[in-house]
């Protein structure tokens, strides 16, 4: 039996989201295409949410939700649709930099505000595992449709769908057409031509999209990151892995993010980074209860290279006086990998110290030499 996550119509919360401008018809046209269907898998939304500018929101409210003409209510009655939550409260008006309703998208700042607003709405809805989204990019300005589609690409899940609605000629050009009526309903076209809306045909063109959600750190999935920040995180997650090591500042740059590491974990990472730079073989861990002098020496070399500003290393040297044992190694390796996963999310994989996945365990950093760079000359530290 197919997994319910692959069947959007089985989700308890089903949301139709659209951007609209001065043509609110796309809402009823898309709803008709989704819900008025002979198949058992018709996607009948439980909620409809619109994203628009101030003037677009007002036109949608008057055309769709008023008593007359109230085209959304007419469609629901004509086809006996179940209750769908759609009201002025589910029409989201984009805001300008001052928090006022956006009149139109005319400047770079308007563009940025629209992108952030649309991305935030999609991020919020996709955080609910019990909902499926159907996103229509048929209405609004082209930039709004682009941002809506791209936001779904960033955050979308398997149950979420993207579409564009197509209306047959000559109805596509009519501002009076809202959906194919079940009974004859005559419309006057520009030029005086009369047509029957019952003869209209609507096609929903589903648009496949590549989901980048798996490449985003958890903080971006649950936080309030901007559109640009989210796109940048996805870009770095998909880019070839590169590691930049700044010994003086005791920080690294990985997957486009710069962050510090504690000295002990920094030194351990540097051990493996230098070996990867030199093309050296993976290393076994120190034995559990048998201190290893070679491991102690290579580790202390790296620790001294970053500890000069920290002062005395006598405590660490004393703890490792007989060598490094497996307990010390595994504790700091676990902490290092935990920090990398926390900071980089799904992009952490290439930067983790791997045990090779089979016995006997051999540890290494899997990056190619050209992907590793130190911010000081290689000769400054001898390994």
Automatic annotation (TrEMBL):
This is TIGR02584 family CRISPR-associated protein. Residues 23-232 form the CRISPR system ring nuclease SSO2081-like domain. NCBIfam families: cas_NE0113. Pfam families: Cas_NE0113 (PF09623). It comes from the Bacteria.
């Amino acid at each position: 039996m197919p997994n319910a996550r692959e069947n959007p119509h089985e989700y308890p919360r089903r949301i139709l989201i659209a951007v609209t401008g001065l043509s609110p018809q796309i809402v009823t046209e898309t709803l008709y295409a989704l819900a008025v269907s002979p198949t058992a898998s018709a996607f009948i939304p439980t909620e409809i949410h619109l994203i628009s500018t101030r003037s677009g929101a007002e036109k949608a409210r008057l055309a769709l939700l008023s008593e007359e003409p109230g085209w959304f209510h007419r469609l629901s009655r004509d086809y006996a649709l179940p209750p769908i939550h759609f009201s002025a409260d589910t029409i989201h008006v984009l805001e300008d930099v001052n928090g006022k309703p956006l009149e139109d998208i005319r400047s770079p700042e308007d563009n940025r505000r629209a992108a952030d607003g649309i991305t935030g709405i999609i991020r919020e809805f996709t955080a609910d595992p019990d909902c499926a989204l159907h996103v229509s990019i048929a209405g609004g300005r082209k930039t709004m449709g682009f941002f809506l589609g791209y936001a779904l690409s960033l955050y979308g899940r398997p149950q979420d769908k993207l579409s564009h609605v197509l209306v047959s000629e000559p109805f596509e050009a009519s501002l009076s057409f809202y959906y194919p009526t079940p009974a004859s309903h005559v419309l006057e076209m520009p030029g005086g031509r009369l047509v029957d809306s019952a003869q209209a045909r609507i096609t929903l063109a589903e648009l496949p999209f590549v989901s980048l959600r798996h490449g985003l750190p958890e903080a971006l999935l649950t936080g309030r990151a901007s559109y640009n920040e989210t796109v940048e995180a996805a870009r770095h997650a998909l880019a070839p892995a590169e590691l930049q090591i700044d010994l003086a500042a005791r920080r690294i740059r990985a997957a486009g993010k710069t962050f510090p590491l504690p000295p002990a974990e920094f030194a351990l990472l540097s051990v493996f980074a230098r070996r990867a730079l030199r093309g050296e073989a993976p290393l076994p861990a120190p034995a559990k209860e048998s201190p290893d002098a070679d491991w102690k020496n290579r580790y202390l070399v790296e620790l001294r290279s970053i500890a000069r500003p920290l002062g005395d290393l006598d405590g660490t040297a004393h703890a490792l006086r007989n060598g490094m044992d497996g307990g010390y190694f595994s504790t700091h390796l676990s902490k290092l990998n935990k920090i990398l996963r926390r900071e980089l999310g799904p992009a952490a994989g290439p930067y983790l110290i791997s045990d090779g996945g089979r016995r006997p365990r051999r540890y290494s950093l899997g990056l190619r030499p050209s992907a590793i760079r130190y911010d000081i000359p290689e000769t400054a530290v001898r390994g």
